[in-house]
Amino acid sequence: MTDPFDVLRLPPAPLAPDPRFAARLRAELARALAEGHALDSSDRDSTDRDSTDDRGAAMTTTQTTQTASDAARMARTGRPTINAYLAVGDARRAVQWYADVFAGEVGESVEMPDGRLGHAEVRIGASTLMMADEFAEMGLLSPLSRGGTTVSIVIDVDDVDATTRRAAEAGATVEREPADMPYGFRASAVIDPFGHRWLIETPLGAAPATSAEAPAAEAPPQGRSGRPGRPGDHEVYTEPGDIVYVTWRVKDEQRTARFFGELLGWTVTPGSVEHGLQVDGPNVMGGLWGQGDDAPNDAKLMYHVPDIAEAVAKVRALGGTAGEPELMPYGWSAECTDDQGMEFWLYTPAEG
Q1: Are residues 271 and 188 part of one domain?
Q2: Model confidence over 234-265: pLDDT tens digits?
């Protein structure tokens, strides 16, 4: 007999998970791994053998072995592979500050005979942030004592704007206001009262649909690309034809940073290349690239194009030169020169 509900059945179709759910699930899985039990010998043996699929074909288990090893290590230590251990000027105040701002839970602490904290912990999501008071006799000083930090700590949160606001209200310096970034995250940067730099991030689409500043029934203002934004927000998402990024190729990047810092109030952070500095603040994203005495002392622009392969072909047809497109962390890029020898880059966002 035919099942009368057959007409109601639909073929299976994959669905993209909600970004907020995916972020929570990742955190829960990491926590479960950290709190689980070490693999027994039979589990370890099974990960070291080649196996076969249901057709009898050989399958490699290299990735499974690596994952199992990571899980076992996390079960032994109770923490991820890499962890931050901070030196702060006032560990008792700091551990409470981080717990309050990042919705964490204060853990154990160890007081030394002289009253300083030799160890303190705060649990934030699936991670444990560790810290201690300064011990100058051992060379352990906070960024405030050293004159600045060389490290940025990235933290994933549900709401970048609310977390940034909470940090500012608690005394942090907002170095970069929340903005949608070209690498697919909404992010901000703050310096906490103890001198440490935090990059506060969440995947685009994972932020709450409404903010505390606007009623739920009121749609947020839209940027040119139709993405949520507020007047004055940095416009990161560009349209074809727009300038995406500016690279100032200079002799001495530190000297240039000091000059324009005094003149225009720019602030800089370490870039992704040697002698590179990311410029924070201008309405166009850009960076300084120190190239010594041979530097051309110019600005090399990156332009947004809708199809990088078509644009590269067009550059060549117009008498310019163009390298092959490369997939970079921020999207597709190609290095080009126009028909008069001026250098520039082309850029197309990578497809989701």
Answers
A1: no
A2: 334 567 778 878 888 888 888 888 887 777 77
